[in-house]
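All the exercises in this workshop are built on plain-text protein records. A record pairs a protein's sequence with a compact description of its fold. The structure tokens are whole numbers drawn from a learned vocabulary of backbone shapes. Once this layout is familiar, the rest of the handout is easier to follow. An example says more than a description, so a record of this kind follows.
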Amino acid sequence: MISTCSSFIFRLARLVRLLVRLLVRLLVQFLVRFTALSLVAPMLLVSVLFSHPAGATPESDAAQSLAIEAENLLDKWNGERGVLIEANKKIVEALKKEPKTMNALVQQGRLFIMAGYEDGELSRDAARAAENSLTSAVIADPKSAKPYILLGHLYTLTSRLPEAKAMLTQAENLPVGSSDPWLYLNWNAYYQAVDNDVKRFEYARRALETNTKNPKALKVIYAEMQNFYVMQARNRAKADEFYNKLVELQPGDAFQRGNYALHLVIYFSDFEAGERLAEEALAIREYGHARQTLSLAHYARWADAAAKGKDKATVDKLLAVATAYDPGAKMLPSCALTHAPLFPLVEALKKKGLYGNGMRC
């Protein structure tokens, strides 16, 4: 009898959880269909249905502290498995103490995204787990912008763009949302996804104006501001300024150097500086894109010298350096050769019978 009763209670509890998740998903679909002004009402409905009664303490101090510790760990994460394991321990402990700790649920969703994102794609299992945690966080505290901000990020990553826009709009309507740099950075990512560079960089600038000290947020902000001054404003001094901020923030990061090396080559025709930064990147870490960029810089220096009428000895020496590093120009990234500053290189490669040997992008 006791066993049968326990089984019934377990099944009933599971059914209630499924109904709650279904309600939140229906709510998300509702949000997508209406304007920003109509977003507030359904969230207030959730608040009435699921918030704690007046006078109750929704989260214990201990659970809150553990959630903040997990958040700080995830802010410092740079791909280390150990950081995720340690953060997960704190999240699990926080939720044991208080299952409705909103920030612990948000950090759990964030951890699922970090752990499940690989090769530019979020796994379905990770996306589902993250969504469950974040919708639970909405239920725990419907008036907090945090869960909506991260749901916006999740839906952008999974190409559910109308839902992403609805979640970010909802977050923007909440008082504390406007001071969170991640609100603007997730709008920035959304507008990248819909190919609107004007809005993309507007939101990067708004994130910068929050004056955040969060290192993970600053990394994205500086990279996007660097991209703006490279790709749109073509302002080398400002691009250098934000590149230097990135290096100061993460002095051992090879990718910042490698990325900017390519920008210097294809947007500013500074082949020598591009060569130097690609070499610096490879000294930190060997990886394919930096090798391609170094090959591009070597060959571009040779073609540039020839086009400017430099003496034969100089031109021949530069070609020898390029061919020694990349015989046959097989590492040249073909997409880079479509940029106007590299058209002289295309012509020089054709004359040498080397055009078309490079790698597809």
